[in-house]
């Protein structure tokens, strides 16, 4: 099957988009009998004339080439003057309407921009490819395949834990490769993954756990909804919440034993700033309230794993219940 000279690849997962670009280049190389050149163009830094000059290809030094115009701003909402965008569109449409043999031009975007004037003018000449992030089950399978390729054993829950972390696929690939270098031939455990994930997602999950620890329901729900929009999974959020409340219990216990902040940090392995934050939150919870929180966590875990309930609603109800305890004193 012949490769289209014009391709639109769109999606929010850079890993999948780059894999598709690699696939196109490999196919073009096979057809041409030599490795195709790969060229990236930052179209936002060029005038219309400069862009056309970059696209004007004469196969003197490379028989085939793939040109990638990565996420040009003018394919979406842009601050450029309408007249300049229109001039760019007209020039590109006229130039690209007559394909250059041996050259494939790829546009990338975060969403389907078929309604853009340029795409409308090019019409059926543009081949569209949607790069959709796999669902949690598909992502879990992908993680297992990566591990198998690395000949790296995983503890049973690790693949699911990574798949539900909300991290992009490039991050997951790099994390798995890093852990494999550290652990191989030993098995990667949940603890290994948790320690690495904490370092990367602490800033994004921090708002949720901090608001929850301090019973600020409005802030906690706002942070929760934001994390959901970023692709995070309720099962992973629950895991992180439980970890923070377990640490809260340890900090509360050591504080009541008369230990100072530095000693508590050393005993728990937590950072000083985290211990300071938890010491402040610990005073808001009695031991009975902490016990009730863990009862709620257990029930939420059961509901997520075996009841068939919507996980988003389960976590939302949990946040409201935990934050509401302080008002029932």
Q: Can you give me a brief rundown of this structure?
A:
The protein has three domains: 6-130, Rossmann fold; 135-188; 200-328, Zinc Finger, Delta Prime, domain 3 (Up-down Bundle). It is built from 14 helices and five strands.
Explain what you see.
With 329 residues, this protein is α/β, with parallel strands linked by helices. The protein has 3 domains: 6-130, P-loop containing nucleotide triphosphate hydrolases (Rossmann fold), CATH 3.40.50; 135-188; 200-328, Zinc Finger, Delta Prime, domain 3 (Up-down Bundle), CATH 1.20.272. Helices cover 60% and strands 9% of the residues. It has 14 helices and 5 strands. It has helices at 14-32, 48-55, 82-96, 117-122, 136-149, 158-163, 169-183, 190-213, 217-229, 234-256, 261-268, 272-282, 287-306, 311-324, and strands at 6-10, 37-41, 65-70, 103-109, 126-130. It has a 5-stranded parallel β-sheet with strand order 2-3-4-1-5, sandwiched between helices. Helix 2 links the parallel strand 2 and strand 3. Helix 2 runs parallel beside helix 3 and helix 13 (287-306) packs antiparallel against helix 14 (311-324). The radius of gyration is 26 Å and the shape is elongated. The relative contact order is 0.09. The mean pLDDT is 85.
């Amino acid at each position: 099957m012949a490769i289209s000279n014009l391709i639109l690849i769109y999606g929010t997962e850079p890993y999948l988009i780059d894999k598709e670009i690699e696939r196109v280049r490999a196919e073009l190389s096979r057809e041409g009998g030599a490795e195709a050149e790969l060229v990236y163009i930052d179209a936002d830094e060029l005038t219309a004339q400069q862009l056309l000059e970059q696209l004007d290809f004469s196969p003197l030094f490379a028989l085939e080439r793939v040109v990638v115009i990565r996420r040009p701003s003018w394919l979406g909402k842009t601050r450029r003057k309408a007249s300049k965008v229109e001039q760019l569109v007209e020039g590109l449409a006229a130039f690209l309407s007559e394909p250059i043999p041996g050259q494939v031009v790829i546009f990338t975007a975060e969403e389907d921009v078929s309604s853009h004037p340029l795409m409308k003018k090019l019409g059926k000449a543009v081949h569209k490819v949607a790069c959709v992030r796999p669902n949690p089950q598909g992502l879990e399978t992908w993680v297992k395949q990566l591990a198998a390729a690395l000949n790296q054993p995983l503890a049973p829950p690790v693949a699911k834990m990574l798949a539900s972390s909300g991290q992009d696929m490039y991050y997951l690939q790099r994390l798995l490769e890093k852990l494999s270098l550290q652990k191989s031939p030993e098995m990667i455990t949940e603890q290994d993954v948790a320690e690495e994930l904490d370092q990367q997602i602490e800033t994004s999950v921090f708002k949720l756990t901090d608001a929850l620890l301090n019973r600020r329901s409005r802030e906690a729900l706002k942070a929760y909804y934001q994390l959901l929009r970023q692709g995070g999974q309720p099962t992973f959020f629950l895991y992180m919440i439980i970890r923070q409340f377990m640490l809260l219990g340890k900090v509360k216990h050591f504080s009541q034993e008369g230990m100072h902040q530095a000693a508590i940090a050393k005993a728990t392995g937590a950072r000083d700033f985290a211990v300071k934050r938890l010491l402040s939150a610990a005073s808001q919870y009695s031991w009975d309230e902490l016990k009730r929180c863990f009862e709620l966590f257990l029930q939420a875990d059961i509901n997520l794993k075996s009841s068939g309930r919507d996980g988003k609603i389960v976590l939302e109800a949990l946040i409201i219940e935990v934050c509401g305890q302080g008002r029932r004193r």
